[in-house]
Design a protein that fits this description.
The chain is mainly α and about 375 residues long. It has helices at about 10-15, 20-30, 35-45, 60-70, 80-110, 110-120, 130-140, 155-175, 180-185, 190-210, 215-230, 245-260, 265-280, 285-295, 300-305, 310-315, 315-320, 325-330, 350-365. Helices cover about 65% and strands about 0% of the residues.
């Protein structure tokens, strides 16, 4: 069975009760044996693994897991690779930035997901935004790098995320505080598939909302890339998102309003994200950036997330219609010259500024001590 528009709602509810047994067993053993410090170093190593590397220096159970996790998605083809590479050749910068901003904020609108992130200490809470956001940014940028789908680098990076998800499930399980009857499994397969929808078709919607044209072929290529990621996150074949962008858009749109809600946790996580990005988008650029993210998400969902409104946001609709205010916002505010309103995308300049800042976020992840922080705790710590 595969996901369809007809069975999607029922299947993701079933997926809410499922974790990732293979990864869960591995991480449970590592935690039980108090090997957390050692495995954190291994997690950083996993991100650089290639298929031809010698795994014999790793603990046998981890080496076996990695070997078994290398298998490609069923039916994966060179045509899928070319389609994905075609999308990133045209839209890598903007898509990566929107995934790391509007996309991440979208995942905070899932109440259980927001609670899970906020309650996992250094993976969330007051100590977490730098590491969490910069590491997520690395994945979004890296998945569009040349050769990422063929040289083994993307599958290695996604496998690392898979193991972090397993660690979160184990931390909640061992805490005794998780309400399985109410919430299902922590970081369940429902959460994973929902997040894939947010980072794929929700981002395609965001791009359209911002006036960015994406061809049908490129949209298909983007879905191929996320189908690939979905597989390496440990999702069973029956719950993998299809490669058909239009179908996945219909599937996601049919359940989104049931899945996205305003919560204190979601607003808290959104506020953290905005504060983190402010250091890379100071002053007026940050105001324009928030207005852009609101437009990408639409007012309905931006309000759910607690995104602030500003004079720039209030001007968004006349700007998009070619109002003369575009010269003040799209030009003067961001340091450029005044532009003629006719035919101008008012978000073009801030998209470029934000995409550059997003690259700075990735550099931050690679060069600051955030990358040396443990990804896993031995006990659940809220740090609210």
């Amino acid at each position: 069975m595969t996901l369809t528009a007809a069975n999607f709602a029922a299947e993701i509810e079933a997926a809410n009760q499922a974790g990732d047994p293979t990864a869960d067993e591995l991480v449970s053993d590592l935690i039980d044996n108090r090997e957390i410090d050692g495995v954190n170093a291994l997690f950083r190593t996993i991100g650089t693994l290639k298929p031809d590397m010698d795994l014999s220096q790793l603990p046998p159970r981890l080496a076996t897991f990695l070997k078994e996790a290398e298998a490609e998605p069923p039916g994966w083809s060179d045509e899928d690779v070319r389609a994905a590479e075609g999308f990133f050749a045209h839209h890598h910068g903007e898509a990566s930035m929107l995934q790391g901003t509007a996309g991440l904020i979208g995942t905070y609108l899932a109440p259980t997901g927001a609670f899970t992130l906020r309650s996992t200490g250094r993976l969330g809470g007051v100590e977490g935004p730098g590491r969490r956001l910069s590491q997520s940014s690395r994945l979004f940028v890296d998945m569009g790098n040349k050769g990422a789908l063929t040289d083994g680098s993307l599958k290695a990076n996604v496998t690392k995320v898979r193991l972090v998800h397993a660690s979160v499930r184990q931390l909640h399980k061992k805490s005794g505080e998780w309400d399985y009857a109410k919430w299902g499994e922590p970081v369940s397969q429902k959460y994973t598939t929902g997040a894939i929808c947010v980072f794929s078709v929700q981002i395609l919607q965001a791009m359209r909302n911002l006036g960015l044209e994406v061809s049908k072929d490129d949209a298909h290529g983007f879905m191929c890339a996320w189908h690939y990621v979905n597989h390496y996150l440990g999702t069973p074949e029956k719950w993998l998102v299809p490669k058909d962008a239009e179908l996945v858009d219909r599937m996601w749109s049919s359940v989104r309003d049931d899945e996205w809600k305003k919560t204190d946790d979601g607003v808290f996580m959104t506020r953290q994200a905005l504060e983190f990005y402010k250091k890379f988008l100071p002053g007026p650029s940050h105001d324009a950036f928030i207005a852009m993210v609101r437009t990408a998400l639409t007012d309905k969902y931006a309000d759910m997330a607690g995104l602030p409104k500003s004079v720039l946001d209030l001007a968004a609709k006349p700007l998009a219609a070619g109002h003369s205010l575009v010269s003040g916002v799209g030009g003067g505010l961001l340091g450029g010259g005044a532009q003629k309103a006719t035919g101008v995308n008012p978000y073009k300049e801030i998209l470029g500024v934000a995409s550059k800042a997003f690259n700075d976020v990735e550099h931050y992840a690679l060069t600051h001590d955030q990358d040396d922080q443990p990804q896993m705790h031995q006990e659940l710590g809220d740090n609210r």
